[in-house]
Amino acid sequence: MLTDVLSPVINQTGIPTASSQVRSVGCFASLRDARLAYGINALCWPRALAGDFGEVVAALGPGEGLVPLDESRLQALALSPAGQVARAVMLADLRLLRDHGLAPELNCIYAYPRDEDPVVFPTDVYSWHADSAPIETATWLCTYHGAPSEGLPNAQARRQADDPAIRAELWRAYGGQDEAEFTAFLREHAYDLHYAASPKAQPWSFGVGHLWRIAVDWPGSPVPPCIHRAPPQPADPSPRLLLIS
Fold first, then answer.
1. Contact 70/33 with Cβ under 8 angstroms?
2. Domain of 96, in residue numbers
3. Is residue 48 over pLDDT 60?
4. Count of domains for the chain
5. Distance CA 46, CA 190 (A)
6. Helix residue spans in the chain (DSSP H)
7. Which of 55, 58, 124, 147 is the Cys-Cys partner for 115 at CB 3.0 to 4.6 Å?
């Protein structure tokens, strides 16, 4: 079962009921400045955005994979007033993040690449995973159209590489004996960043229109990284409009 953090939207403490690791904020400044600490590893600025984002997707036309959208391509689209509002919202978000030292990207995602022949387990973005970085940082994201990303409470997940049977398979794939080199092997192939959900796990939805800032795995982080994934492909897939930094 997938829990939507916006239904019921937010309890009286200001924390979405889907997970105690998620906290909502009321404005961009709070989203930017709030600490990812004290068990909170995901911050959400809930928003009900105006505009027709589906029209933007339709105007872009068919495509494959992940298509970056720059300002010039968006400005060239012939859109109705509702579509123009949606375009203005996305461009404003891009500029807002850039003005605060971030490097956001806006993509139209028809499908992500699949790990078609995993050595032990798949390590594509459809798998539960965490982001990582060598320095303190966070991942920012917003889904404007299409199925949104999904999150998983850390207590309801287990790192794949910590499962004894899977770890044995990884050792065989590594083919060596040195523990430090094995750790480097896991890191190089992102095996240390992927998770399996517990049988009774209750994932939560990032929702559409909301701007998020989530914790990544960086040295010294006071909280575990936010475990998340791209939404599994629905029966009738619609391209996603996704802002990410």
1. no
2. 3-158+198-244
3. yes
4. 1
5. 31
6. 28-33, 53-60, 71-76, 81-99, 164-174, 179-188
7. 124
